[in-house]
């Protein structure tokens, strides 16, 4: 089963999108191709999750070369760069869309973060995304994988021109 969501019309039975959580943001992450694995080492513990989708402009054009800054907690609710036991770039990266504006990210389902200073942020595991494209406003959001056995989800990010 695949869940689908867009920034403009999330539904209860689909992945939900919310504001990005900058609390555990780290700049200058590794740049990855459109088809990327966020795990820094093979065998990352946790439930596998695949996130596919496209970045479009408000008028529907796909945006090749758009950058998705992605970061999330591991299966224990810990963020890399904030725990000495985790590699600094684990479950983080800047994914660059292909010629058709597509991305295909392999990762794991994040656990809720128990160490957040913002109480509402530790209730559900989520993936933080900031989408950038030249000539467009950046979009910051949180993608929440749907509960249950779903291991794949699809997202469409729609950017407004500057």
Compact summary:
This protein is an all-beta fold and 162 residues long. The chain has strands spanning 2-6, 16-18, 31-32, 35-37, 48-57, 67-72, 92-96, 102-108, 127-132, 139-144, 152-159.
Characterization of the model:
Strand 9 and strand 10 (139-144) form a beta hairpin. Helix content is 0%, strand content 38%. The protein is globular. The relative contact order is 0.32. The protein has no helices and eleven strands.
Attribute tags:
single chain; mainly beta
| Discrete helix count | 0
Please summarize the sheet with the most strands: 6 strands, mixed
| Overall morphology | globular
Q: Give me the Rg, rounded.
A: 15 Å
Strand order of the largest sheet: 2-10-9-6-7-3
Percent range for β-strand residues = 35-45%
Please provide the count of β strands: 11
Poorly predicted sequence stretches spanning 5 or more consecutive residues: 1-18
Q: Report the mean per-residue pLDDT as an integer.
A: 82
User: How helical, in percent, are the residues?
Assistant: under 10%
Structural class, by secondary structure, is: mainly beta
Order of secondary-structure elements: EEEEEEEEEEE
N-to-C span? 36 Å
